[in-house]
Amino acid sequence: MDDLIEITSGDLTARVNPLGAELWSLTDAQGRQYMTDADPAFWSGRAPLLFPIVGALGGDELRLDGKAYTLPKHGFARRSTFAPVETAPGHARFRLTDSPATRAAYPFGFVLEMGFALEGWTLAMEARVFNPNATDLPFSFGFHPAFAWPLPGASGLGADKAAHKLVFEAEEPQDVRRIGKADGLLLPEGEPTPVVGGELALHEDLFRADAVIWTDLASRALSYGADGGAWLDLAFPDCPMLGVWQVPGARYICLEPWAGLADPQGFGGDFRDKPGVVLLPPGETARFRMDVTVRPA
């Protein structure tokens, strides 16, 4: 697309679509691609931003003060056009503000900014949510980047897909959670973690029941890759939850740091009381950072 905005450090080049302020591409100087191929046979997304909700609401209803508003899965930011407010060779920043259309689904003022900056082999991304209201702003936020699986190798072909794994910075012994296939809501029961010794071996069968979700993650960083290919080091200090997902058979893996969750099955309360919702005081700004450092093959 001609309207993609490109930034570069020399080592890495990122291309961002103002529609959704979505990262579309991350390549190195050799042309190796670290993002999804966005094959529509599986999923055409690349790295949508999840705001003001993460996941699905029961019946797609946002309930506030006895009123119900219709808000589809993951919110509206990913389908909204952000205004580029700052562009330079190595960085760019985009802004989305409330409108009559957003207020019909989410009755609050807000300012959501998304910044991208490249330095060497690191892409630093930061979302900022500002509350211009006279009352607390309830919201959730999440990253949803889809990285290449397999990652490229020295030849550009990459290591075997089955050799890829996640290495967490901390042990993750707690149960993981799933969402219901029919309603997309968080199931009440957990299941034993697939993480062994701080590592998760990636294989397509993990995702037959949809995403693997950590609701109380100990780690705030992880590495993804395989011997013989590249590695990506992810840091997400402001997100206490994580989803890992793909459509089985696709050539991507979504590594999704979140500050928020889908509605738990059976939850019918006010949005402010939903697990994972951030309550931002008037006049304050919340920040959510995600850094991706490439270690090329």
Q: What can you see in these coordinates?
A:
This protein has 297 residues and is an all-beta fold. It has a single domain, classed as Beta-galactosidase, Chain A, domain 5. It contains one helix and 22 strands. The longest helix is centred in the middle third of the chain and has 6 residues, at 100-105. It is globular, with a radius of gyration of 19 Å. The two termini are 29 Å apart. The mean pLDDT is 96.
Mean pLDDT: 96
CATH class, named Mainly Beta
Query: Largest beta sheet: what is the strand line-up?
Result: 7-8-9-10-22-18-17-14-15
N- to C-terminal separation? 29 Å
Flag low-confidence runs: none
Could you tell me the CATH topology label. Beta-galactosidase, Chain A, domain 5
Estimate the helix proportion, in percent: under 10%
SSE run = EEEEEEEEHEEEEEEEEEEEEEE
Radius of gyration: 19 Å
Tally of contiguous helical segments: 1
General form: globular
Major sheet size, sense and barrel closure: 9 strands, antiparallel
Count of all domains: 1
Give the structural class. mainly beta
CATH architecture descriptor text:
Distorted Sandwich
Total DSSP E strands? 22
* Estimated share of beta-strand residues: 35-45%
